[in-house]
Design a protein that fits this description.
The structure holds two protein chains of two kinds. Chain A is α+β, with helices and mostly antiparallel strands. Chain A has two helices and five strands, in the order H-E-E-H-E-E-E. By secondary structure, chain B is mainly beta. Chain B contains seven helices and 31 strands. In chain B, the strands form eight sheets. Chain B has a four-stranded antiparallel beta sheet, with no helix packed on it. In chain B, strand 5 and strand 6 form a beta hairpin. Chain B starts with a strand and ends in a 13-residue tail after the last helix. The chains are: A alpha+beta, B mainly beta. The interface between A and B is large, with 39 and 33 residues. Chain B: Pfam families: WD40 (PF00400). Chain B: This is WD repeat domain 34.
Chain lengths: ~100, ~550
């Protein structure tokens, strides 16, 4: 098993983690543990959200950049890790 | 020398003039002909041409059944990215589990509404109510309705359409569009009379204008109000159909279909049969059939098929005693079994597994069933022979401890996979786990329960309609706050659109009341899901709902 697979397994086996998606910079899901329809929707929405968040930060301070995005919802904690080439989205149910 | 000039006119080439010259000297004629030069215009025309092409991944990649292979997973940059992010991610995942920073924190996105307001009281026009009580079928499952049967039509069923703007009312089919400014409380926008009383309604989950219903005579009907003739399909009584009042119709997603509007119709009747219908053959013939019948030993299924076999052999001739555990109730069981054939009053599909459903019968028994028990489930009507005889399958997978009277209402929780609530004529509202035979929580309403509906917005809220005319809103988490309204309440429906937090209530006088719920009763709150989790896990104990307060 590759190191990538290993790492992804490790993250999804964390307590409370309900889903995980890796997107490339074009917003195409390259690894997912979620339902196909949900994955596609997440891919489109989180790519957009992330670029919006990033441009907000950049406009406030040219020297700053987005490093991590955490969203607290009624159902989930969503952790979004952006990168030049990839985007990792992790769904966690914190009251597990 | 004489010159004669002639002019010819042609519609296409214009004037054609000919000059005739007579040359007398030579003794011959010289003729010259002259025409206007022909003008030729040439113009080219052609359509603008654009080419576009798109390319997507093969369907199985999009649908996730196959992972895309052309993107190398061992790409070093992906490895680096994951390696960098892993410590931060893991730390946060850990912290989230311990954090209580957001506990009890709730954002108020909308202006809070206080109190429950009655917005409308809809009534059928008095002229259209059947005058003779004889024509009025006893639409409620129980005999307790007789006090009100002389009053006219009863509201037997309610259905909000898929967008939540239109309310359809059973009895006769009446539709009110609540978004319309011309709304008249005593005049439905559309009214369709059927040959007999409509017992149940189910709005199509995606198509707002489509609704299905079942009648007292046993017909299953489907209307589409966008069609010129609204009744688009109906079962034929002279062919295969129910012979008893249809107690429930429900839409089930067509298995294996990617069309989001593809649904099958399941109907259950008091004759103990369930039919599966397809709109593809306009309900001319059912495509599936199920029958709930007590095969020997079947009654004592307590822990799934394995235990079932064992207990049959062990308990020998009196399996009932094993199940009931007390001699006093043995007699009751005998009566119940005699009545079995007139079974079935309540049906509810799970929102998590679309083919699993719960069935409550007039004898009080409750079963978990599955449509896949019929190996042919979901086949298309084309694959059937014209006069194929349907074989009934037994859908029961698991049975629960019964109510002591008919089960009138039953619904699986839309928020919790394993939780469902049932209400019966014994006045008990039981909350159960799908996996346990015994109820986890019992609330005594001290009046027969006819209608029951879980809130689609607030996980811990459930509305119950009783024979005493009360609409009880139970909140499994904080203390309950019942509100009241007159005659027996047969039908309840929460509107599933979150912008329209309405609860529609239909009663024995044929009235339909639409309540707007307060924010407290319509916006999900912190800790409700956990309350459901605890209830399903059985730690809530039984008896009082107070025990479940968080």
């Amino acid at each position: 098993m590759s190191e990538v697979e290993d790492t992804l397994k490790r993250i999804s086996s964390h307590k409370g983690v309900t889903g995980l998606i890796v997107l490339n910079q074009a917003g195409i899901p390259i690894r997912t543990t979620m339902e196909p329809a949900v994955t596609i929707q997440c891919a489109a929405l989180f790519t957009r959200l992330c670029s919006k968040a990033r441009s907000t930060i950049k406009k406030l301070d040219e020297a700053d950049d987005l490093s991590f995005l955490r969203l607290r919802t009624k159902k989930h904690e969503i952790l979004v890790a952006p990168d030049r080439e990839y985007l990792l989205v992790v769904f966690q149910n914190p009251q597990f | 020398m004489a010159i004669r000039c002639l002019e010819f006119v042609d519609s296409t080439y214009g004037v054609l003039s000919a000059m005739l010259e007579a040359a007398e000297a030579e003794g011959g004629d010289s003729i010259a002909i002259q025409t206007d030069p022909i003008k030729i215009a040439s113009r080219g025309a052609g359509p603008d041409f654009e080419a576009a092409s798109t390319q997507t991944d093969p369907l199985d990649i999009i649908l996730g059944t196959r992972q895309p292979t052309d993107i190398p997973l061992d790409d070093p940059s992906l490895q680096d990215f994951l390696r960098d992010i892993l410590p931060i991610l893991e730390r946060d995942l850990e912290l989230n589990l311990q954090s209580h920073a957001f506990d009890g924190y709730d954002v108020q996105w909308d202006d809070p509404r206080t109190g429950v307001t009655r917005l409308h009281t809809l009534t059928l026009p008095t002229a259209l109510r059947p005058a003779s009580p004889g024509k009025q079928p006893s639409s409620a499952p129980q005999g307790e309705t007789s006090d009100h049967s002389g009053e006219g039509l009863q509201c037997t069923s309610l259905a909000w359409n898929s967008v939540g703007r239109v309310l359809a009312v059973g009895g006769v089919l009446a539709r009110w569009s609540l978004a319309s400014r011309k709304l008249q409380a005593d005049q439905p926008d559309v009214m369709v009379e059927c040959s007999s009383c409509l017992m149940c309604l189910a709005a199509h989950p995606t198509l707002p204008a489509v609704i299905a219903g079942g009648t007292y005579m046993g017909e299953v009907l489907v209307w589409d109000f966008t069609a010129p003739e609204p009744l688009v399909a109906s079962s034929r009584l002279e062919r295969v159909s129910h012979r008893d009042p249809v107690s429930k119709v429900a839409w089930v997603k067509t298995p294996g279909s990617y069309d989001k509007n593809a649904y099958l119709l399941v109907s259950s009747a008091t004759d103990g049969l369930l039919y599966v219908w397809s709109l593809d053959n306009r309900l001319t013939q059912p495509i599936g059939m199920y029958q709930v019948k007590p095969s020997p030993g079947k009654e004592i299924v307590v822990g799934g098929p394995k235990q079932h076999k064992k207990s049959t052999t062990n308990t020998g001739s009196k399996p009932e005693a094993w199940m009931w555990g007390s001699a006093g109730r043995e007699a009751l069981w005998g009566v119940a079994r005699a009545l079995w054939q007139s079974a079935r009053t309540a049906l509810s599909f799970s929102s998590f597994d679309p083919q699993t459903f719960l069935l409550g019968t007039e004898t009080g028994s409750l079963h978990r069933c599955n449509l896949r028990r019929d190996p042919h489930f979901g086949r298309s009507p084309d694959s059937m022979r014209k006069d194929e005889t349907l074989l009934a399958s037994d859908p029961i997978l698991f049975s629960y401890t019964p109510h002591t009277g008919p089960v009138n209402a039953l619904q699986a929780s839309p928020f919790h996979r394993n939780l469902f609530a049932s209400g019966g004529s014994d006045g008990r509202l039981l909350f159960r786990s799908l996996l346990q035979t015994a109820p986890e929580l019992s609330i005594d309403t001290s009046a027969s329960i006819f209608g029951l509906h879980w809130s689609p917005h607030r996980p811990a809220l459930i509305a119950v309609g009783t024979a005493r005319g009360e609409v009880l809103l139970f909140d499994i988490k904080p203390p309950d706050s019942p509100s009241a309204a007159p005659p027996p309440v047969f039908a309840l429906q929460f509107n599933h659109s979150s912008e329209l937090p309405y609860l529609a209530v239909g009663d024995g006088l044929g009235r339909v009341m639409v309540f707007e719920l307060s924010s407290e009763l319509s916006v999900g709150q912190d800790g409700e899901r956990e309350a459901l989790d605890r209830l399903a896990a059985g730690s809530g104990g039984s008896g009082d709902d107070d025990e479940l307060r968080g």
